[in-house]
Amino acid sequence: MMKGECRGELLLTKRDRKVIFCKKCGYAHISPMYSEEELEKFYEYVYRRSTPSNLWREKVRSIKKWKSCGSILDIGCWEGAQLEYFKKEGWKCTGTELNKKAAAIATSKGISIYQISIKEFFQKFSKKRWDVVNVAYILEHIPDALGFLQRLKSNIAKNGIVMVEVPNEFNPFQLAYIKEHNLTPYWIALPDHVNYFDKEGIRNLVKKAGYTILRGESSFPMEMFLLMGDDYLKRKSLGRASFKKVVNMERILRCYEPDLLSKFYSILYQCGIGRSTVLYLQPR
Ligand SMILES: [Zn+2]
Fold first, then answer.
1. Where does 109-213 have alpha helices with state H?
2. Structural domain count of the chain
3. Taking the model in full, what pTM does it have?
4. What is the CA(24)–ligand 1 centre distance, in A?
5. In angstroms, what is the span from residue 160 Cα to ligand 1's centroid?
6. Structure confidence at residue 49 (pLDDT)
7. CATH number of the domain where residue 35 is located
8. Which of the residues in the chain have pLDDT under 50?
9. Residues of the domain holding 135
């Protein structure tokens, strides 16, 4: 991709980078972009404990709308938490993960893991196809998100599904919160996050890459706690408490009103709110 043509409204400046809403790409990203080599070095060794996701369970459930079982590839699977849920349901699981420590943890769970970069993945598996490919928390990290999604199409089996999940940034709840408190966007994370997708941004990207959106879902809008005054940005313990509340609510609804919960998250997506966005896609 010719990053040279990228330009658009300047959203803010952080460290030595600008964050622009790029007219060409259709979403916000840093400028100038980091090189793949700079980022690969960073990801191979920098280890962080994984943040639990409310959507691990939800995705195993949602995918049944299109696939009852089969093979799944998780690109950048971190410690293999998502694959564990699929494995329990009888799916044939494969993961790739560049980070050494996270890949070792995933392997210890009895999942087939390749400790390779995305570039190495495309070289090694140019002819292999999977029924489902999970691309969770990847697109915000990679310089050429469009090229990645285009190339990935040759790894999707006939009628296969790609599940894309990205943090929902510059979302209306975040924007209201920072305006109220006169803050700059607190979600800008360098060098980790080079791209920032709100609902329209991620839709623009996947459509340009040649995918049809079958369904969209959000995870719970955690920023609602900020708006209610539980400022977990200032106090970490509030963050853990907020997360527990959401887990409780989901556990109860999953038990008694699972379809309503699913519908609720699909409506949040339509409103552009939610901590992350999940799209179920099919190559066009
Ligand atoms: Zn751009």
1. 118-124, 145-152, 172-181, 199-208
2. 1
3. 0.93
4. 5
5. 28
6. 73
7. 3.40.50.150
8. 1-3
9. 3-283
